Amino acid sequence: MPSLRVISPDEHRDYLATLPSTSFLQTPGWAKVKAEWRAEHLAWVDDQDRIVGAALVLYRQLPKLKRYLAYLPEGPVIDWSTDRLGDWLDPMVRHVRKQGAFAVRIGPPVVTRRWSAAQIKEGIADPEVRRLGQVPPLDRSAAGARVVAQLHELGWRQQSAEGGFAAGQPQFVYQVPLVRVSTSSTAELEPHTEESLLKGMNQLWRRNIKKADKEGVEVSVGTASDLKAFHDLYVHTAERDHFTPRPLRYFEVMYDALNADEPDRLKVWLARHQGDLVAATLAVRVGRHSWYSYGASSTEKREVRGSNAVQWAMMRDALAAGATVYDLRGITDTLDADDSHVGLIQFKVGTGGEAVEYAGEWDLPINRALYKAFQIYLARR
């Protein structure tokens, strides 16, 4: 049974570097991005004091009280295949209780279901289908089901996928696998080629990538000095699409913090047409997992397809870096053709990837009265 201790950010970083990948939200750098939260780095160690699991815990204080929500976004990084999850989670709960936590929120990085692009397209076309869950999945994960069952047994409460808390991470995401089953062996995985990735996309995506190239769209990787140009376009996008943009300083901190953990962990990508910035994105890679994190596009010159061009450049870069998955992050679970959110999934489905459902976020109330007050506070917000 592993024991728990506090570690330094450097120890945390060194341990994560030994793993194939982990969520960027569980890296030491992310603690600096979320500076309004108090951060703590924890490790599970074996009987020889070797680290076998780790967590970034972010403590968010309740208004006017010295009590906290302990939040582990897309974590902790532990052995989720175990049949004894309590041996890992119980020591962590005892620790955060001593730190003044009234509740713990975790996000197990465990997949529960997957759907193919073809299944999603059929679902959108079917007027009887409103939600992804109405479509029988391509794959149900036995390991994911085991985690969900254990969390229920241990008293954890699954949170709604809609999420009310600002910190909440998406339960449904869209991913493009960058590996495929080898033609020579059914058990072996081999990297995609650029040609096979393109072949997996729908006709519209392939046409748009080709059009961007023909129109002379140039995609490049920027530096910290290009964050201002990215942010200007992002603010323009926010005004057009009616969402509240983050300030430039947030992205400057994110760029410096993640790249301090490892050079090129976060890259800013810029697509230009005849000198005009038509699309810009931020991409994050931790080991073999690459994420499209933020995006922006110009209302002018949409016909040159800068957004497709920059996505294709990021995919090729992830493939060249040895990543096994390109993650386009959150989608809603709607397949209702009349829902305004369906356009997002339709754009991502064009890449030919798959919709992936994770176990979602789970709360464990420690002080039930405070937890109930916290839920009322969130509902009123």
Automatic annotation (TrEMBL):
One Pfam match: FemAB
Keyword vocabulary terms for this entry: Acyltransferase, Cell shape, Cell wall biogenesis/degradation, Peptidoglycan synthesis, Transferase
GO molecular function: aminoacyltransferase activity
The organism's place on the tree of life at top rank: Bacteria
SUPFAM superfamilies found in the cross-reference section: Acyl-CoA N-acyltransferases (Nat)
InterPro entries found in the cross-reference section: Acyl_CoA_acyltransferase, FEMABX, PG_Glycine_Bridge_Synth
One GO-annotated biological process of the protein: regulation of cell shape
Stored Gene3D superfamilies: 3.40.630.30
Family according to the record: Belongs to the FemABX family.
PANTHER family named among the record's database cross-references: LIPID II:GLYCINE GLYCYLTRANSFERASE
Protein name per the record: Peptidoglycan bridge formation protein FemAB
Native source species: Nocardioides silvaticus
